[in-house]
């Protein structure tokens, strides 16, 4: 069993901020794999916006408040989490470390962090589940046929996952131009082992007048009735990841889904969308105060987690950072990363006068007066 003391005793002193893992990862990952992970779609406008949105926000220091009883503890879907930083679903983790998702799960367990396992995991979902007793959710991509989708959901239920996260923003999945230019392909050892068939890079056979997008990929994109169908198949809560249009959200609210992850897929889906942080306040207004909202996209520090919570998130998820830490230090790297993120969040809370996550509100942010 990993203890935090053991983890910290082996960490090089140069790794003292979450972002350091991104710099170090370059030494552990080949250029084409790095391009696959770090790249964004199109001209990377959404990717850049995710970071810019955080950088624009200022925090207000506050003194004279007793924070000695402070805690980052939170309840999400009736599950207790020690802190509101979860591991986002990231495919094919054996690309960067031989232990892949098992190492990530061990880190989540050591740090009592929530983990969301991708449909495209390179490790069996049952094996991953055995390595963490902390909150674990299964991220679902609808499969071309309903039996295959149902099979994944039932396996996740049986393995002890506590929620299904349905991702809706990547009906069209293409490699980023950066990864294409370096000729990235998914190697055998990182294939999505939970799926019956390997991911096909061959488009569906179409007639010359048919479009690969409309008559090809979009024929597999889930519709609102598919979400309703899913609700009828499982007793698990359903959280939807990657919706931003108010009409989509309205339809999902009408179905009483259990939560939303505000996300633009880390700038890997439709390019040119707002940053997820920019979307957050509007979506919070639409869904109301008590609805479960998480955010991902551009989180690179505990300061960012704080800002997202101040703007309406109940918790945040980290995507690329966890993969960089996994590449550099396996389970220890990811656990150390989570520890740094939590420490930074605590620091922000203490210096803005917040003892609980509920205290983090817009009053902790500084807004310049308009002239
Ligand atoms: C290499 C990579 C693979 C990803 N795979 C998935 C996936 O299988 N399912 C999913 O819902 N999101 C996937 N995502 C998106 C993440 O869950 C998350 O939305 C995004 O990484 C957040 O942005 P960040 O990387 O800036 O933290 C992936 C992201 C990356 C970088």
At the fold tier of CATH, the topology name is TIM Barrel
Strand order of the largest sheet: 4-11-10-9-8-7-6-5
Please compute the radius of gyration using only Cα atoms: 20 Å
Give the CA-CA distance, first to last residue: 57 Å
Assign the CATH class: Alpha Beta
Helix content: 25-40%
CATH architecture: Alpha-Beta Barrel
Fraction of residues in β-strands: 5-15%
CATH-assigned homologous superfamily: Aldolase class I
Number of strands: 12
Q: What coarse outline follows from CA principal-axis ratios?
A: globular
User: What ranges have pLDDT less than 50 throughout 5 or more consecutive residues?
Assistant: none
**How many helices in DSSP terms?**
14
Bound molecules: flavin mononucleotide
SSE order in H/E notation? HHHHEEEEHEHEHEHHHEHEHEHEHE
Helix-strand category: alpha/beta
Q: If you average the pLDDT, what whole number results?
A: 95
Largest sheet: 8 strands, parallel
Summarize the structure.
With 371 residues, the chain is α/β, with parallel strands linked by helices. The protein contains 14 helices and twelve strands.
